[in-house]
Specification:
- It is built from eight helices and no strands.
- By secondary structure, it is an all-alpha fold.
- The longest helix has 36 residues.
- It starts with a helix and ends with a helix.
Length: 251
């Protein structure tokens, strides 16, 4: 597969995130419905965190089994990336927030950033498989990651539900969340690096830990524990289902 064809496919996988973002424009006024959507985002992002950590430690585990000299570097990248992803958002919050929490817009942008870091690693996988000439795997990854991005978009849209965000804002968070698929595909086609993959996955994991904490804080203020529970369950299961579909497709 040519470089240009690969980049087009990687871009398509990233653009599917825009299919889920219009949820943010739906009029939601009842506190219980807001609580459900907030918890839905928590469930999706919690599953995404588990999935990210699993993939981030795979190269480290492989280096341990092979007693490779790259092990110290991989461990350092894993720990450093996680700390940077988490603490950078803590300091960012201190600068942009006058209150104890982000505004909905800040939160949506941060969620999109965390998902974008994850999608960068997905782009690496698409580019790498195409460069090796594995057309079937490349197409499978594009379809699977594209489907996954639709679900992840709900996590970005949920904090904005009921606030009627502008299309410009939705376009911005869509580019932040889906654009890295394009960049990752280019880099993945050009060269393969376990260290780069671990770095971006660990950055995403740290960012999502912070975001999940903020969403939990917002959910407690809505005082709808039953709807919170259902939202987290549905969100987590939605993420799990799309991942199982991805595995069934052979990715």
């Amino acid at each position: 597969m040519s470089f240009s064809e690969t980049v087009i496919l990687g871009t398509i996988a990233g653009l599917t995130i825009f299919l889920g973002l219009p949820l943010a424009r739906v009029r939601v006024v009842a506190p219980r419905h807001l609580a459900f959507l907030n918890a839905l985002a928590i469930g999706i992002l919690f599953f995404l965190f588990v999935d990210i950590v699993e993939h981030a430690i795979e190269p480290v585990e492989a280096a341990i089994r092979a007693e490779a000299s790259s092990l110290p570097l991989l461990v350092g990248v894993l720990i450093g990336g996680f700390a940077l992803g988490l603490l950078s958002l803590v300091y960012y919050m201190r600068r942009v927030s006058v209150g104890p929490a982000f505004t909905a817009t800040h939160l949506a942008v941060v969620i999109a950033t965390g998902i974008g870091l994850h999608n960068f690693s997905e782009g690496l996988a698409i580019g790498s498989s195409a460069q090796k000439g594995d057309l079937a795997l490349t197409l499978t990854l594009v379809v699977g990651f594209g489907l996954h991005n639709v679900t992840e978009a709900f996590g970005i849209a949920a904090p904005l539900a009921g606030k009627r965000p502008s299309w410009a804002l939705l376009g911005l968070v869509g580019v932040i969340g889906g654009g890295p698929n394009f960049v990752g595909t280019i880099i993945g086609y050009t060269f393969a690096s376990p260290q780069v993959s671990v770095l971006f996955l660990s950055l995403a994991a740290g960012a999502l830990v912070f975001v999940i904490g903020e969403l939990f804080a917002a959910g407690r203020k809505l005082t709808s524990p039953l709807w919170n529970g259902w939202g987290i369950a549905v969100g987590f299961l939605a993420g799990l289902l799309t991942d199982l579909i991805l595995i069934a497709l052979g990715a």
